[in-house]
Input
Amino acid sequence: MRAVVQTVSRASVTVDGEVIGSITDGLLVLLGVTHADTPAIADTMARKVHELRILDDEESAATAGAPILVVSQFTLYADTRKGRRPSWTAAALAEVAEPLVLSFVEALRRRGAQVQTGRFRAHMLVESVNVGPRTLILSSDG
Output
């Protein structure tokens, strides 16, 4: 599992002209799933994201009560080593990835996080205003 985590003053995701998720002063998480991922990995990644001390004054979403916007992002597993056309073979199929993204979101909610989400398999417009900017890349695969 890979996550790009950004501190944002605001972020939103729009599908078909409708804003379906929106936060202020929190974290935007772009989340990619690969074949080896499990619900246990999703839980570990959710805990890490929730407890990362990257907000102002070294606070985390957990301590500050900051909201989190989670957007699935299979392209985080693009292989660009050969040619100009990325390969997506490392990304989990939608049928595998969607339940694991939902597991990640539920793990955040169990920890008390306020979570908004994008829509799986939808063409999404993601807008964000980064703070800092602070951007971290987390990976469960080493």
